[in-house]
Amino acid sequence: MRGDDEFRDHVADTLAGLPAVRAVALGGSRATGANDPDSDWDFAIYYRGRFDPQDLRAVGWPGEISPIGGWGGGVFNGGAWLEVDGRHIDVHYRDLDDVEHQLAEARAGRFHIEGLIFHLAGIPSYLVVAELAINQVLRGELERPEFPDALRKTAPERWWGAAQLTLGYARHAHAERGHLAETAGAIGTAACQAAHAALADRGEWVTNEKRLLDRAGLREVDAVAAGLTAEPEVLTKAVDDVLELLDALVAAD
Length: 253
What we know:
The chain contains ten helices and eight strands. With 253 residues, the protein is an alpha+beta fold. The chain has a six-stranded mixed sheet with strand order 3-4-5-2-1-8, with helices on both faces. A two-stranded antiparallel sheet has the order 6-7. It starts with a helix and ends with a helix.
């Protein structure tokens, strides 16, 4: 059985040999050194022009391979879940033309937010830029951008505005009516939005929500969520408490 380094190189070489692929990067916990022995392997393939997922399927690794755009379209435009030598790997498709466009947009302070499964607050279009900054380039060459000053000015305001609107709507549409599930969901979403605001203000890249609240210092939201019941007065107080907590975080940053 291949050791980790040999396995990584085997996968990287195979992916780099696919038509249209210009670079391969390692992401996730294995790129940052936060992995444990059983952690999955996350790879991104950067292609120029037309990439055909059928070329990846032809490699013969078992698993699921999506078409381009199969994960909802947008910047996160598809990928595969595969098993190689008994190890689970994720492969993300990255269109270099689009990545370079999003990099230029981020440097100008512009971005948009897309809905994506597993992400409460959605993802910013600069997520693919964050990957360039954080991931390990294994094959080919990729830019390694710093967090743009313009984005540090625009992103916190945009994310914090979304958090305020989320909680304001939840208070009147759900909390005052005793809607427990909807209020709880809005609290979680707003906390993630505020965390994005705080980290953008610090110039820290975000690639997923797994440790988002911890990094932002917002684990206190758990205590509020743990006390939720379906009484309107409990829910409205919880929304107000969370708004105060998030406001304090954003003001401090």
